[in-house]
Amino acid sequence: MGYSHEIILPNEDLSFKMFLFEGKNGNYVRGKHWHRSIEIFAIFEGSLRFFLNEEEYKMNAGEFLLVNSNEVHSIFSPKPNVTVVIQIPLVVFKKYYTNEQFISFSHEPRVRNQELMKLMHKMYDTYVKKECGYEFRVQSYFYELLYTLVTEYRDTDISPEAVKSYQKLSRLTEITDYIKKNYQKELSLESLAEIFGYSPTYLSKMFQKYAKINYRDYVQNVRLERASKELMETDHMISDIALNHGFANSKAFANAFRKKYGRLPSDFRKEKN
After folding, report:
1. How confident is the model at residue 99 (pLDDT cuts 50, 70, 90)?
2. CATH number of residue 261's parent domain
3. By the 8 A CB rule, do 105 and 153 touch?
4. What gap in Å lies between CA 97 and CA 155, rounded to an integer?
5. What angle do CA 168, 156, 35 make, to 5 degrees?
6. Which of 155, 175, 203 is the last residue of a domain?
């Protein structure tokens, strides 16, 4: 692969973030999630499989996918790839909201697709080279990207159902943020519902209808993703990793890991070394 840089553009430097996708080495699964930022995945080399609103997108080199704010998505990266991710804070589009704090961009191919892909290449390459004035050049490319998005990719005919889903996921974000901070503890649906003032039945239905995932599966995915990162980045014992991330024991961790990743934690670690 021609790209090897691991970069992140901090917010204090520019008004957006750009970095290489964390699943660049392959054998990677990112479970269902959502966030307020607008996100663009630009595949420079290799391929990725996206699941966006229950629809699968098989993306190859030279293609990009735009993920809207609060749009449920997951990613499967079976093989090495070079994918640049651009995250744009939702507030950047404040003047162009279609509804209150809501804007949506089309996933359908547009005439400017190839031009936008070239533009993202320029943004990344310019930043990596860091020649005199690179910040201004990168920012100029960024504004060109924003202009094209709001003039040619923005959806103006938004259904009430889409707005409602967006609002419900905004409420769920507060809950999932709590889960991510406390996933190592025992997190029953009943206790979480009480904390946030919902009935367990209503909260369960919110996850299933709007996040498209069972509550328990969501918590399990958070634990697995955190555990797999420790598995890759440390030489800690697998039994300790299991306990560190909310699993009852190493057997429970191994069963959940194999179900999601298709291999045991020990085999996964060997493949990474």
Report:
1. low
2. 1.10.10.60
3. yes
4. 10
5. 35
6. 155
